Amino acid sequence: MRPGNTKAIEEMFNSISSKYDFLNDIFSFGLHRFWKGELLNMLNPTYGEIWIDLCCGTGDMSILLARYMKSSENITGIDSASQALLVARERSKKNYSFIKWINGDALQTNLPSDQFDGLLMAYGLRNLSSSYAGLREAFRILKPGGRAGILDFRSFEGRSIQGLFQKIYLSFFVVPIASLFGLGKEYSYIMKSLVNFPTGAKQIDLALAAGFKKAQYRTLAQGQMGILLLEA
Ligand SMILES: C[S@@+](CC[C@H](N)C(=O)[O-])C[C@H]1O[C@@H](n2cnc3c(N)ncnc32)[C@H](O)[C@@H]1O
Fold first, then answer.
1. CA atoms of 6 and 27, how far apart (whole Å)
2. Ligand 1 close to Cβ of residue 151 (< 6 A)
3. Quick check: 85 and 101 in contact, CB under 8 A?
4. Is 178 domain-assigned?
5. Assessment of whether the complete model's pTM goes beyond 0.85
6. Could you give the CA distance from residue 131 to residue 197 in angstroms, rounded to a whole number?
7. CA–CA separation, 58 and 99 (whole Å)
8. Which residue among 27, 52, 61, 79 is best mutated to probe the pocket of ligand 1, counting the most ligand atoms within 8 A of its Cβ?
9. Distance CA 154, CA 79 (A)
10. Which residue(s) pair with 77 in the sheet?
11. Which of 10, 63, 115, 185 is the most exposed place for a label (fewest CB within 10 A)?
C-alpha cells in the first residue's frame, strides 16, 4: 500500500483495530503511554478546556487526556476508521463516557473554526495524505492562542545511527512480530509512511506556513520519537 491512499489506509486501520493496542504495547514495551503522558505534561490541558484528538484510533490518547484533565467532558476524538472507533467507544463507555467520538477525516473535519483550546495527534500526521493540509485544518479549528501537540516517529534525513536503529527496529522487530499475527504487510507500512514524512525542522516550517504563531520540535526516546508543539 502506498502512503497517501486515504481509502486503503482507512481499510488497513479498520483491519488491525482489534489487535492495535495489544501490538502497540508489545512494540513499544508499553512506553507509548509514557510518551503520550510526556506530550500531555508539555501541554498541560486543564479542566474546563475544550480539546480534540485527531486520528484518535482506538482512543488511547483521548482517554489519557480525559484522565489527565480528570474529566471526559469537552473531549472529541476523530478518526476515519470506524472499527477503531468501535474499540474506542467500548474502552471509554465505563469511565470516560462523555468523550465524543466522530467518524471523520482529519483533513476536513467539518467542525467550526476557532473552536478548541487544545489539539492532540498521536501517530496520525504521518498517515495523512498531506502533513501540511493536516496542520492547516488543525490551525483552523483551534482558537487563537490554542495549543497543539503532535507526537510521531521521528523522520531522519541522510545517514545516522538513530535512523539505522529505526530501520532495524521496524524491519527486524516490528514486522516479524506483526507477521506472527498475520499483520506483517500492514505493519511494514510504518517504514513506507516515514519515507516522505517531514523531519522535525520541516514540520516546524510547515506549521508556521499553515498559520501557527509558534512551533518547536522536541525529541523523545533517544531521538526515536518527536513532538511538534504548536501555538495558534
Ligand atoms: C497509528 S494510528 C494512531 C491511533 C492513536 N492516535 C494512537 O496513538 O494510538 C493512526 C490513526 O490515524 C487514522 N487516520 C489516518 N488518516 C486519517 C484521516 N485522514 N482522518 C482521520 N483519521 C485518520 C487511522 O485510521 C488510525 O486510527
1. 24
2. no
3. yes
4. no
5. yes
6. 8
7. 12
8. 79
9. 22
10. 53, 101
11. 185
Distance from the alpha carbon of residue 125 to the mean position of ligand 1, in angstroms: 8
* Number of folded domains that form the chain: 1
Cβ neighbours, 10 Å, residue 167: 12
Residue 190 lies in a domain: no
Nearest C-alpha to atom 26 of ligand 1 is from which residue? 57
How many of the other CB atoms lie within 10 Å of CB of 94? 7
Residue 42 located in a structural domain: yes
Q: In terms of residue numbers, what domain contains 16?
A: 6-155+195-231
Residue 43 sits in a domain whose CATH number is 3.40.50.150
75-79 vs 51-54, strand pairing mode: parallel
Q: How far apart are the first and last CA of the chain?
A: 34
Dist CA 22 CA 206 (whole Å): 33
- The tally of CA atoms less than 13 A away on the side-chain side of residue 152 is 29
Beta-strand pair 142-153/116-122: parallel
Q: How far is CA 19 from CA 12, 33, 211, in A?
A: 12, 16, 37
d(CA 172, CA 164): 12
Q: Is residue 91 part of a domain?
A: yes
pLDDT per position as a tens digit, 34-61: 999 999 999 999 999 999 999 999 999 9
